[in-house]
Model the fold of this input.
Amino acid sequence: MLKNLVKNLKPSSTLLINETSRRLEAQGKKIYKFGFGQSPFKVPENIVKELKDNAHQNKYLPMQGLSELRNAIAKYTSEKKNYDYKSDNVIIGPGSKELMFLLHVIFDGEIILPAPSWVSYAPQAILGRNKIQILQTIRENNWFPTASEIEEIILKDQKKNYLLFLNSPNNPSGQICDNLEEIASIAKKYNLIILSDEIYSELCFEGVYQSISNFCPEKTIISTGLSKWCGAGGWRLGYFLVPDSLIEIKNMINVLASETFSAVSAPIQYAAIKAYENDHSNYINKSRKILSVVGNYVYENLKSNKVLINKPQGGFYLMPEFLNKRFNSSSEMCDSILNDTGVALLPGSDFGFDKKQMIARLSFTDFNGQKFMDGIKDNEKIDYDKINEFAPKVVEGVDKLKKWSESI
Done:
């Protein structure tokens, strides 16, 4: 009854951990939701108002997306990237996840996935019937691949088409790729296509965000959306920016879109125009500041001679590695942590690591972002007392996790 292609697939672990946490809470258990990653902040009020004002919009919109929204996104991105994107380069989808799936379906070649990588990349590649090349990375290189490692894969068979997924700031590591220029040189040399997943790009903690598209825009498909910077994960609005040089890919995604989701919700598309036309720098800066401070608090209080961990650089994740030999797999370890402490984490094996590597993903967003925002002034320094006041479950959960790590 079921195709062999799908028999071994499981529900997305990021969504599953959210359901598990809810079930345990319903049973009366106190759970620290460090497993599911979503923005703790509310959608900016002016965008919410625009959604309400456009609730009457009930017509099917163009399958590539509302022209006014695509114009706003193209202008916004062109200014940030210093590259001339037109509205025709933009494809609006019901979350960037769906657009990635369609890309996997149409692409004919091999998918290069640096480990760690987001949990849905590999299953989507399997559904797209593409071979996956998992490229293991190391902590010292911020968990990103080197140019020579990518080149080594391509040189095994230069006749194939290759698509590299690059996610920076990264889910699950919270790290930023700092060798973009050398990776871009490989893309140009071997006609490598890059899917640059920039969903966390507005949440880069230090400096101006740099994209691989700054070095090879003609080879780069940019993927992003509202979910992370705008607190609108449930709105399901993402988009691709596809350069003119990859017009065949853009046109075929449109064909598949017409046969699958038809068009994204009209009220949400109209509301999203304000997300890119209005100035939300204060909202973004406050979000970034809070996430940076909370992330650094977790990092400083969890790192030890029993827990290896890199300082967070963007987004809302950390990736601790627990130095122990008590468990057979990272999944078994995370189950033990949840049962012993109530702290929900995701195992590193879900992100492409060997199951015997005791790595987990930790999302430090179990707090009320609106209360945190309202409770601090624009230029106020956020100290421990503020973190304890507005993110008490993060403080308590980290303490439990630290004590657990010291006991193993």
Remarks:
- The two ends are 45 Å apart (CA to CA).
- The mean pLDDT is 93.
- Residues 5 and 127 are 7 Å apart (CA to CA).
- The longest strand covers residues 110-115.
